[in-house]
Structure formats: C-alpha cells, structure tokens
Design brief:
With 245 residues, this protein is an alpha/beta fold. It has a single domain, classed as Vaccinia Virus protein VP39 (Rossmann fold), CATH 3.40.50. The chain is 27% helix and 22% strand. It has a seven-stranded mixed sheet with strand order 3-2-1-4-5-7-6, sandwiched between helices. α2 runs parallel beside α6.
C-alpha cells in the first residue's frame, strides 16, 4: 500500500509506474506542448510529469501536501519541491500561469476548498489540468497503484466541483486505457492500447483528464439578485394630483 511521497516515487520506478508516466505525459504534452516562459506549479504528487515542462519555463515548483509528506525534487539538483496544505498554498495570488493537479483531488478532505485555493494563485489567463481516477476505470480497483487510492470521480462529479470552484471546463477526456498489470509487454503496447481505447472505448479509461480555465466574471447564484415585477401593477395616485385650482 502506498502511504507517502517516497512510496509514490518508488512506484513510478516500477513497470506499472513507467506505463502511467509515459501514457499520461503524452496526453499532457498534447494539451500543453511546452512550458516556455511560464510559471508552473504541480500540486498533489505531480513530479513525474513536471520534468517535461522544465525546459524553457520561467519557474517551476512541486507542492506536496501534508498528508503525503515530501521528498527533494529533482534528485541531485537544486530543490524545487515545497511543503503545503490542501487549501493553503505558499504562493502569492495571481502568480502562476499553469497548475497541474495529480494525485491530489481524490485525497482532499474538501475538494472545493482545494480548487478555490488553486483559483486564487492562478493568473487571470491561468489554466489548470486535473487528473483523477475514474469511477468506472480499472485503475481505481488496483490499490497498489496511486490511482487505486482516494475517492474516484465520475465526469459529472468532477465538472461540478470545478464549476463550484470558479473554473470553466475547456477540454475533457479520459486516459490510461492500458490495464493495471505488471507485465513488460504492456509497457511496449501502452500507446497502441491508449489510442484504441480513446477511439472505441472512451468510457473505460482509468482516469479523467480535464483542462479548465479560471472564470473571472461574476456568476449568478441561484435565487440571488433583485426581483423585479413585470407589468404595470397598481400605482397609487400621489397626494394633490389632479387637484382643482
């Protein structure tokens, strides 16, 4: 059973971990081809996927939650990892261009609070990618993997918490169609299986991958605002009106 950040790091060195990293990194780079000049933060345990965005990025940081613990990243280089809480990020408001949230939302006690804090630190043009286990996928049943832990989501549930947190969904898909088996052959066939599943079995993906943008205009709350009557109605005659002179 995975219990801390070191366990997660060791998992990503295994065959199944390399399959996950290779497949999901391909999907991420399709959405965000580069990190050129961008300030990027990874929340949860996103370090296996942040390395692809380091070249050319203005700044990059990995924020690991208190419930998971922390280890230095990258190894044998200047540390870019920091300790944080789910709903208290050690970053200034509107200071980040991109946030990658992996192995985070499914472990959060209050998902909306977590996302609202991410909303705070994102710039007005900021983007967020959330990757969470799918309730209908196979990976959520493999408890020896990171996506087999925490609370899985349906697509509807994930869209709801994003909307309640002030985000607009820009792109939604599923990924990780390769089964969670620790066999080397799946490492070689992972991309083929991924393309087949995405085209023919889209509901069987192991994870939801959603890109969202920061909503910066006011949102009308149900029942909010003033009530304006339509129609003439009864208008009392002012005192002294039509008075004979």
């Amino acid at each position: 059973m995975l219990r801390n950040a070191y366990d997660f790091r060791n998992f990503y060195r295994s065959i199944a971990g390399r399959i996950m990293r290779r497949v999901l990194q391909t999907r991420l780079l399709a959405l965000w081809p580069h990190g050129q000049g961008l300030r990027i933060a990874g929340c949860g345990y996103a370090v296996p996927y942040l390395s692809a965005f380091r070249p050319g990025s203005e700044r990059i940081i990995a924020l690991m939650p208190a419930t998971l613990g922390i280890h230095a990243w990258p190894v044998d280089q200047t540390n870019l990892a920091a300790f944080s809480h789910d709903d208290i990020l050690p970053l200034e408001s509107a200071s980040v261009d991109r946030v990658l949230l992996v192995h985070g939302l499914e472990f959060a006690d209050h998902p909306v609070r977590m996302l609202k804090e991410i909303w705070r630190v994102l710039k007005s043009t900021g983007r967020l990618i959330v990757i969470v286990p799918s309730r209908t996928g196979l990976w959520t049943r493999a408890e020896w993997t990171p996506f087999g832990l925490g609370a899985p989501f349906t697509g509807t549930q994930l869209s709801y918490v994003l909307r309640e947190s002030g985000f607009v969904t820009e792109h939604s898909t599923q990924g990780l169609f390769v089964p969670p088996l620790r066999l080397p052959i799946f490492l070689r066939l992972a991309q083929v299986i991924e393309r087949f599943g995405q085209r023919f079995l889209p509901m069987l993906g192991g994870v939801h991958i959603i890109e969202a943008s920061k909503q910066i205009y006011a949102r009308a709350e149900p029942g909010g605002g003033s009530r304006v009557s339509v129609g003439a109605g009864f208008i009392p005659r002012p005192v002294g009106a039509y008075k004979k002179v």
